[in-house]
Amino acid sequence: MYTSGEDVLDFRLNFTVTKKKRAGFLNMSTYNQETVILDNVRGRLESGTLTAILGASGCGKTTLLAALSQRLRGGTLSGQIRFNGEVIDRTRMTKMSGFLPQSDVILDGITVREHFYFMIEFKLPNITRMEKQHLIQKSLRKFSLNGDTKLINLSGGEKRRLSLATELLTKPQVLFIDECTSGLDSFSALSVIHTLRDLAGFHNELKLSSPSTSRIVLLSIHQPTSDIFHLFTNIILMNAGRVVFHGTADEAKTLFDSMNKICPTRYNPAEFYVNTISDPRQCLEIVNYVTSKKKEKIYEDYEEEFDEFCTSSSSEMSLDNEKDERLSWLCQCKVIAHRSILNFVRYPNHYLIELLILFIFSLVIMSVYSNISLDSESSVQDIKGFLIILATEILFTFVYAVFTLVYVELPLLRKETGNRLYSLSAYYVTIVLLMIPRIITETFMYAAIIYFATDIGSDFMIFLSIAFSIMLAGLCSMAYGFFLSGIFSSFFVGIELSGIVDLVLLLVSGMYTNVKFVPLLKYISFFFYANETVSIIFWSQVDKLKCHPNPEIQCFANGTEVLESMGFGTTEFDIYKDYLYQFILTVVLHVFAFLGVRRNVRRSGFY
Ligand SMILES: Nc1ncnc2c1ncn2[C@@H]1O[C@H](COP(=O)(O)OP(=O)(O)OP(=O)(O)O)[C@@H](O)[C@H]1O
């Protein structure tokens, strides 16, 4: 094996997950089965080396990278990782390493320069403005990137280079890269591998920091070309969660040749090795051969005295409890907010479409109810329907806007909290605060269009009270949107199942039944609070009502009787009581939502 460096990373890892299996009559019963994903994977990586993990799809390359970089969550990871002989935990590993996941997760709207700016704000809070500018310019030059290009317009290769440059801002000692050339043409792929070889310090040409910088670079790759294959200083061949071979390309050739598995001339050696080890019979043969050679000390063996120190499952590890010199919590919120606002301003298309849909909604409702008046014979029925639509329709918009937003941003959130750029709580609080102005403006716009279009909508103070009540219900519905994304870990399952929860909330809201029949359950429904408060505000100021000529239709003398017929309160006190209860519901939903989102992030891993 090629060795060169001062820094050494030793590891021995096992990773198992519990999968649910079906059995019995019509597969009705389920049982848990432990599946081994990494099976006693051992190795040693040294600085100044560029090591590639090769193997068939599903053999465990990504899992090994995620486990080694300690960004893996879910399942049970056991074994040990040592850096220069010292056991390292997740906090230290995240500080000293960079991890590039398979896909480049970035915000679309901002430019390359802005992206660098925010990453530096998160990662290097203590450097001066001049140093920041200098670092941005240097990174743009080194990685041939145009600072003014929007991230959405970057090519696959440029995105990869940008992610790489971002990871290198903090000069990590170890760099993990998953599928480092996926989506790149052979020329771009070759150039990325050359860059990585330089970064490893093999040809220490790229002097980003001190001249003697050398790093450990470990990457996974699918079908590298022969040119690329020969740039790796070491290769790891994996099959079914096990390391079959670890050494240089020359050592691999010697091994395979000595077993009479000769790579044909002009054949890509990487392809040949992967194909050979993917055949279970040949793989077993190689493993047995290598084991016997290790006994004869011909091949290097990493069987050292590793203590079984860490047996950890995701739930035991903390996301937010590490104390170090990273950006303060409030500054994290500030940078997240700045970035989100800029991204929104630069790329408002999605929001503008949502706004247009809301506007069309308002116009449709307005056109249906524009003729209602207190003087008509069907006034009570019409106005009841109008107030229900006015109070509740917009709430769905907020619920599903938040629900979608969290799922869209989840990959970025996983990656960035995994890299310890900010804490999950800072992200959560900032996103909630950023949603508030949106809820206020949309609610008032929507309520104004609908309310003032009708004959009953002439009192400005009543409009303000109604819009305020809907806005409070909007804030509660936003918390419910976060809550849904916390309890459902899959977007599509969430969309389907949330319909059932929505139905229950609507049934107890007073829309379809007298709420006296649901004395307690109604308090969990923000639809109920919106309905009751808006109804009280409107009906309590109606002193006289016209009766319908048909004696079979119930006649109400005034607004209070209408409220009583629906089981709603009739006084101002009932409105304030609703505001208070709704506030408590909003806080409770946010607490559970935060815990749920945190569980989803931890479960899916930080990559
Ligand atoms: N948390 C998990 N729960 C269940 N199965 C898992 C988990 N993590 C990994 N696996 C399984 O482990 C195997 C290895 O996955 P991994 O993503 O590491 O493969 P890979 O070699 O990187 O594949 P590819 O080259 O296709 O990306 C797969 O069968 C995958 O389904």
From TrEMBL:
One of its GO terms (cellular component) is plasma membrane. Residues 23-265 form the ABC transporter domain. Pfam families: ABC2_membrane, ABC2_membrane_7, ABC_tran. Keywords: ATP-binding, Membrane, Nucleotide-binding, Transmembrane, Transmembrane helix, Transport. The chain crosses the membrane at residues 351-374, 386-407, 427-453, 460-481, 487-508, 520-539, 579-597. It is found in: Membrane. It is a multi-pass membrane protein. One of its GO terms (molecular function) is ABC-type transporter activity. It comes from the Eukaryota. Belongs to the ABC transporter superfamily. ABCG family. Eye pigment precursor importer (TC 3.A.1.204) subfamily. This is ABC transporter domain-containing protein.
